[in-house]
Design a protein that fits this description.
about 90 residues, 4 helices, BofA, transmembrane, about 75% helix, transmembrane helix, Pro-sigmaK processing inhibitor BofA family protein
Length: about 90
């Protein structure tokens, strides 16, 4: 099963690189996306360790960082509400 996952991931990465090279995509979108991911991770870290919310800990993983990167600050609220409703 791991081998299948590696093959699918490898093919996906190769196809993505092919599309980027053939379309001559600019690197600006990649920089902006990386900045959004970094800001999202910092936001989750601040919420977790600032003491504002003491009952719930939002884990730092790709899914939560991606959610906050796409939704912004309401994404942190969404993750907090999901964690609170599902696990309390």
């Amino acid at each position: 099963m791991k081998m299948v996952a590696w093959v699918v991931m490898s093919i996906s990465v190769l196809l993505l690189l092919y599309l980027l090279v053939m379309k001559k995509a600019k690197a600006g979108w990649l920089v902006a996306f990386g900045a959004h991911l970094a800001i999202a991770a910092i936001g989750i870290y601040v919420v977790n360790y600032s003491g504002w919310i003491t009952q719930v800990h939002i884990p730092l993983n790709p899914v939560t960082i991606g959610t906050v990167a796409i939704l912004g600050l309401p994404g942190v609220g969404l993750l907090y509400a999901l964690k609170w409703f599902l696990f309390s």
